[in-house]
Write a structure and sequence with these properties.
By secondary structure, the protein is α+β, with helices and mostly antiparallel strands. It has 5 helices and 4 strands; from the N terminus they run αβααββααβ. The chain has a single domain, classed as 2-Layer Sandwich (Alpha-Beta Plaits). The protein has a 4-stranded antiparallel beta sheet with strand order 2-3-1-4.
Length: 138
Amino acid sequence: MALRAWCAHDREGEPSRAAKFEAYGALRMIEVLYRYRVHAAQVRAFEHAYGPDGPWAALFRRHPGFRRLRLFRSKNESGIYIAVDVWESKADWEAFRSANAWDYARLDRDLRMLYLEELLLGYYEGDEEYQPPLDTTV
């Protein structure tokens, strides 16, 4: 069983229930969601920088735990975006942030002028990526 390498065992040599839960949680995919309000004059530059082929995605690709970056534009509010950074696990996200702290801070500072407001919406863990219904608007 793959979990044995990751967790403590009970008396019979099987992973304990708490250890299974802890190991499972450490291996679950994580999505980091941000909301941005972008000035109309910066929309094209923002969409490039925060899109799947921009500098953020390039920086994230340094770590093998990075899956992809998704960018959603609101249909109802002009200049509102949701960025979703998808990682194999919370541990991968944390390892990336630790190993790339200086470059992350520099890129964050350099691209700050592209948006008016940034809000971290939260961290969401699950077995697979969230797939919104096709008719959902942000």
